[in-house]
């Protein structure tokens, strides 16, 4: 099958993350505003062109004060670095409907290569005749790799925030 352009249906998609807090629990959040440019054969992602852009100001951890802090210069500094960009550079099929998608992540002015495990969840037509495909992805980045080093030492040892950020995506794509 030939490559086709696909858009993301944001109302049926999500980009979520979690990070350790006080070394005893995890705080979760989501980004509400994102877009992707995808040119792919939904049945074989190995030749796909994928670029994802996340509006970092759309962060939501269900706490307005924390979200404001995450937007400021201690963390994302959205005034100077408003987006996280992912551009796929290599896609390897690892199993039936399973892929390792490696690409350049640009965050906070730093670009690093990261790999995400992607699962093709299937495709179908919606009631209006549009072709749709579903994908799940997960991965992990180290925030310190991107200069996001704000933290505080705990009197009991350890630090307030973990370095690893787990990322998960549920994406529903619509063929253009």
UniProtKB/TrEMBL annotation:
Location of the Lipid/polyisoprenoid-binding YceI-like domain: 5-174
Pfam families cross-referenced by the UniProt entry: YceI
SUPFAM superfamilies registered for this protein in UniProt: YceI-like
Domain of life assignment: Bacteria
InterPro entries with a match to the protein in the record: Lipid/polyisoprenoid-bd_YceI, TTHA0802/YceI-like_sf
Similarity field: Belongs to the UPF0312 family.
PANTHER family: PROTEIN YCEI
Protein name stated in the entry: YceI family protein
């Amino acid at each position: 099958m030939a490559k086709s352009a696909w858009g993301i249906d944001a109302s049926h998609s999500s980009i979520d993350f979690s990070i350790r807090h006080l070394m005893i629990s995890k705080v979760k959040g989501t980004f509400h505003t994102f877009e992707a440019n995808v040119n792919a054969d939904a049945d074989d992602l190995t030749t796909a062109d994928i670029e994802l852009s996340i509006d970092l100001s759309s962060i939501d951890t269900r706490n307005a004060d924390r979200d404001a802090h995450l937007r400021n210069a201690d963390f994302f500094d959205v005034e100077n670095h408003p987006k996280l960009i992912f551009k796929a550079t290599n896609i390897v099929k690892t199993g039936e409907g399973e892929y390792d998608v490696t690409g350049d992540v640009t965050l906070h002015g730093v670009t690093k290569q990261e790999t995400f495990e992607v699962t093709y969840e299937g495709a179908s037509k919606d009631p209006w005749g549009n072709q749709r495909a579903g994908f799940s992805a997960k991965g992990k980045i180290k925030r310190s790799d991107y200069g996001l080093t704000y933290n505080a030492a705990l009197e009991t040892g350890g630090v307030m925030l973990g370095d690893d950020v787990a990322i998960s995506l549920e994406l529903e794509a619509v063929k253009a």
